Amino acid sequence: MRVQSTRPAPLPPRAIQLVAHRIRLHAVRMVARQGLGYLGQALSSAELMATLFTSYLRSGLDHFVLSPGHYVIAAYAAAAETGLLDPADLDAYGQDGSDLEAIGTERSPVADITCGSLGQGLSAAAGLALSDRLRGIQVQTYALVSDGEVQEGQTWEAAMFAAHHGLDRLVVLLDCNNSQVDGPVNSITTIEPIPAKWEAFGWTAQRVDGHDPGALLAALDEAVASPKPAVVLADTSTRHGLDCLPADADGHFIKLSTDLADRAVAELETAILQAERSAR
Amino acid sequence: MRQPPYPTVLKPYGTALVELAKQRPEVVCLSADLTRQCEVDLFRDTIPERFINGGMAEQNLMGIAGAMAREGHIPFVHSFGVFCTRRPYDQVAMAIAYPDLPVRIVGFMPGLSSPGGPSHQAIDDVALMRALPNMTVVDVADAVEVSQVVPAIADLPGPVYLRLKRGEIPVIFDDGDHVLKLDSAQVLSTGRDVAIISGGMMLPAALVAASVLAEHGVEASVLNVPVIKPLDATTVLDACASARAVVVAENHSVIGGLGSAVAEALAEAGLGRPLRRVGVQDVFAGGSRTASYLFERYGLSARAVIEAAWTVTASQGPPPAPPPLPAEAGTYAPV
Hints:
The structure holds two protein chains of two kinds.
Chain A: H1 13-32, E1 36-37, H2 39-55, E2 63-68, H3 72-81, E3 113-115, H4 121-134, E4 141-146, H5 153-164, E5 170-176, H6 185-188, H7 194-200, E6 204-209, H8 213-225, E7 230-235, E8 254-255, H9 258-279
Parallel strand pairs in A: 2-3, 2-4, 4-5, 5-7, 6-7
Antiparallel strand pairs in A: 1-8
Chain B: E1 6-10, H1 12-23, E2 27-31, H2 41-46, E3 51-53, H3 58-70, E4 74-80, H4 89-97, E5 104-108, H5 125-130, E6 136-139, H6 143-154, E7 160-164, E8 168-170, E9 186-189, E10 194-198, H7 203-215, E11 220-224, E12 227-229, H8 233-241, E13 245-253, H9 258-269, E14 275-280, H10 291-297, H11 302-312, E15 331-332
Parallel strand pairs in B: 2-3, 2-4, 4-5, 5-7, 6-7, 10-11, 10-13, 13-14
Antiparallel strand pairs in B: 1-8, 1-15, 6-12, 9-11
Helix pairs in contact in B: 1-6, 3-4, 7-11, 8-9
């Protein structure tokens, strides 16, 4: 992996949007090869990943914890867009014998720590941040967490711990896509009010449109500067950026027919062309 | 018994649980955000007033289940095997097993049947549950046993861990002449050379192995052991005593599961037989696209059972290969 000693210059929002479209296109192709998979996670987190990978994460320095291992598809795609992975490697995603497994594991590239068993990532991120501070290493730890997994009590044990120990270099991107296996999060166990919960646990909390790169840039700037651990609550949708998906498309694990995959690729290629023109 | 590839059925567990609950108002169904995957969407849609989705919070759910059992309910708690054993282990121990409460913990996707990698592969669930006092541990092999096990465990006074394959469930036994008994293992065939002891998802591979071995002069008995704890040591020891060697085949780590239970029974009885344990060899497996790839790669195949039986009986020459058994859509064949 490349090592950047200074934070990457933030990309303009339009350029981040373009990367997000490309993440979605990679993800569609990765899922299409298998006919089903974790597409919704990539669609909801595309702008989060694009913003983080292009404009914040210093590869080889900062830590990236991907709490829900099912999101690793989006991390692979973002890494392919930022030179951390060979895009050709994405072809092997999820295949028998591949290192790019569909749910992140210990051998997965890109993420420092990932957890297919949900609700464990924030503890790992707090551990990395604590270790860095004890060793006098001034780097950031970014953790992507999903809203469904805050139902696990461990998330809140970690949140309490991080605030108590003043882990100000810990930034959480919470993908609030209101999706878990059994349906919308708010239909299973209510987790709102989410910002008030994090604030009550001693965190700086901001809530933004998770598909708006400009808003994400501003929120992440503030989160990094915060003297407390900070969470950016990003409201997202597991269907965002793909109008061709049916309204009832499963957000956790979607079946993608060849026909639907073709339409999705066409839609995203059009979006990418338009974004390239507008980014010029 | 049928021959592979076996026909498959969907949701035999979910169907059986609804049938039981219609008879027994004290049965409640607890889910943890994997409702359809654990076949209890049937329960949710049929008896919604006794269906509780606890969300993605298994430790809490075990505490809820234990308390409900104290009040007279019979809670059936559902998740993937990893998430209802490893994750809430202390809660299962203290809130359910120690007070000896009639909670039925039902864990889907046993062993390497999940291609989702170590986080989703329950390779140690039997070991964990077997180590808890009062816990009965059941690993059934097919849809006929699934249908029978639900009413069979309903009235056990203590807790039960039931391990179930997810998705298409093979029909190995003929309905009507197969009776699942919680207190006895079942001799499916007899042979004087090697006793193959199996159950759960490895039973089909054990049956194929026995058939191939017979064609090559090695006579194998096959024992189906749906209840791993308490183990029917009498039947196990009888089968082992009648053979020169023993092979245990299980879709689980070779540490702490059926192989360990059999080894303990042999040792305590002073019955010396060479033993080979076919199972996950003390490693975390990987993720993959298909479970069949993992079964082959990690030695949970008919080939692995044959090789273990061949070597433990000191048979001459290379071990025979199993026949290719392609599973068409809607059928199940052992790897």
